[in-house]
Queue: 4 jobs
Job 1
Amino acid sequence: MTAMEGLPVDLRAFHNDVEGHLLAAAAHEEAHRAAARFASGLDRLSAEQRGEVERRFAAEHLALTRASWQRTARRGRELREEYEALYRRLRARLIAMALLAVTLVVSAGLVVVISA
């Protein structure tokens, strides 16, 4: 059981929104820290140049992070569709087998009743 299962739909949406904002804020912070680490090794740059390098590095880092998240989300949707299709097929097989079993039991019962 997850913490989300007991929440009403509107609270779930709110929770997802808050989580998304927190993830985005963490990604921005990570990008800026990585940019500062990268630019700190460039001693020959002026402060203005270093600032521009940091801005470009952070923007590229965020773009890569966004692309990675989009690929992950797309793959998650693909897997969900695959598993849902598999579940539907398995459920149909189970229902067919249950109906066959009931039919066989009823037929066997009728044969016993008719022969007796």
Job 2
Amino acid sequence: MDSVDEGMCVTFLVRHAWLSMRSAVAAALAEHDLSVQQYGTLLVLREAPGQTIADVGRKVGTARQSANELITGMERAGLLERRANPTDRRSQQIYLTDSGLARLAKASPAVRAVEADLEADFTPTDRAAARAWLTRMVNTEVPIDEA
């Protein structure tokens, strides 16, 4: 079995793969007037409504200040709304609006089509292994620097 250069850093390979995928996904999302981070935010909030800005920032890989700017722009576009957090007056919870859910529903097939194209040469076993590895990596708790 041919292998990737054993000297290549896995972290670099994952980053390079992400940048390539991000470019392809960004082009598909542009048709839906969404950025990759906006799409990720919609996904995160659909799966777990009511997260704080800090929670969203951690899950989409951005600092809290950048997440606040992202949320503000999406709120102005009518894609989500902030509500008072009943357990913490210092924070707000973020929820998708009907418009945000509709935009996510329209954009998701385009993203899935890009992913299908990128995975076209993978066997079902390769695809399952890659997804399992990525899911395991995502579920490993490593804090993102919010400085």
Job 3
Amino acid sequence: MSVTATLTPATTAPRRPAATRPLDDVDNRATYISFGLAYVLGHGSAAASGGDTPLLDLPGWLPMTLLGAGLAVGTVQATAAAMHARRAATEPDDVLSGKLLGAAWVTAFAALFLAVTGLTSALDMPDVQSLLWPTGSGFVVGLLYIAEGAARRNLLHYGLGSWLALTSTAALLMGSPGLYWVLTLAGGGAYAVAAVLEHRRLGFSSGRTRLTRG
């Protein structure tokens, strides 16, 4: 037997493919908590201070300020999560999807701002902003979650987006202040549940990745 024939099996032994990070392994907990607090504090204060017999006497600017601050923080967190998914991706198509999803957050809220401002000006009804911003932002966030959930194959994200899109638009049927109670309970509660489930999902995903590498 020749020396070359003896060494061939060792030199041509197949290598174990390097484990890649799954697309759904993106931590959304900071985003869920930020948006959840925006719903509870922003919509909750609007619900408690609205109506003929308000529970709290709050200045009119406070609910929108709390909501806007929470949405701004949540949008930054969501954009960061999309960019993190892009950096973790290895396939060119996944990298492009991450870039587009990250940019979609800025585009969607810019479009929402133009729509609300345009409708308010066209109808000459400044008070309509208090209805369109809460429901419109929930609808936009829901659609973005649906797109991200589909791209990352994340059923929790997709399900949360579907729930937010439906409940945010259905809340318009309730009028004020019932609209804000629906958003507070249905939206804020959904984010709280999603944050808990996200923690469990990430733990399961980490264990699955370790088994794959092992």
Job 4
Amino acid sequence: MKTKENTAKIDVSNEDFNSLLRKNGLKITQPRLRVLDIVSTKTSAISQPELEKILGTEIDRVTLYRILASFEEKGILHKVFDLNGTATYAICSPKCTAQHHHDQHVHFICSVCNSVYCLDEIAVPKINLPARFTLHAIGINVVGLCDKCQE
């Protein structure tokens, strides 16, 4: 299964990151820029432990946790849980804001390598809720084998 989303990396410049942070009222710091750089180069969502491995001693665990939390709160990243219940993070749509996330799309989780891919091109069905129910989020996960694990 090869899709555009799981093979293409997001092409963003450092200036785009600066603009994104400014737009969201966040200070432009090297740790924030570094996290954005790493997440934007991944073809699948990335977990905090994976980020910690890549970063080494560049950013301590508490700072990384705060960065991920603030990015999620501002609509810069969205969180998806893998098959082990570990939170993974992916870049949100440019339309996302702190008030309204537009990350309601299908996620593909590989049952072998546990990688999580955003499948933006698959429409989420309209949900008709009973009276006085309010929708906050939709989570649809599809589990199978990614293209790498099928080889």
